[in-house]
Amino acid sequence: MKTEQLMIHGLTIELTRKKIKNLHLRVYAPHGQIRMTAPLHVKEKEIKDVIHSRLEWIKTQQQKFANRPVMPHLEYQTGEYHYFQGQRYLLNVIYHPAAPKVQLQDSTIHLYAREGCDAAKRQQILEAWYRQQLQILIPEMITKWQPVIKVNVADWGVKQMKTRWGTCNIRDRRIWLALELAKKPLACLEYVVVHEMTHLLERYHNDRFYGFMTTFLADWRNIRLELNQQNVNQQILEE
Ligand SMILES: [Zn+2]
Known about the structure:
The chain contains six helices and eleven strands. It has helices at 44-53, 55-66, 119-149, 186-198, 207-216, 220-227; strands spanning 2-8, 11-18, 24-28, 33-39, 81-84, 87-95, 101-105, 108-113, 155-159, 166-169, 174-178.
């Protein structure tokens, strides 16, 4: 695998050559970076032709990212809004001389921390709680969907992801879900779990894959729209 930077039509393209059959082109959040993966021996002319033919699409994608609101800087202090399962909560920081904890009450998230705890530490406390919540929900969802999709997930995990809502390692039958999903409605979390599990039947986002998705979750397109709707202080990732 080899990565290089190309300038084509004034655009910077990060090109990775791999042992694959087809060219893949993607535009990434947040700045509309362009990445292409290409078969090992494809000629530069062919790469240029692909970029040329998809220029409009690239510009549209980049425009889409440019129009997204910038995430506000968060201090994890009282008065800020934070999200959990699609709901907006007011954050209330309480200092106490005991172990940190998080409690939901009506539309407030109470974050208990030790006196002198800084923003980074408060963020850690909230994220650890998000992770805990996902770690309860995800195995329930996997158990529910395994007999429907007729696959077996060997392992799963939650982690901070910069560009994806989820990933699937088909060989190891392991799925990873983005911590950010804790902020999204449960239906969105479930959609990503089903999406990643469906990759155990079909690696690519092709007609077969979307056919499966429609069989499993008839409404998946609407759920995906909801997933990709940005609220304040929520990141948008990709599947
Ligand atoms: Zn996918």
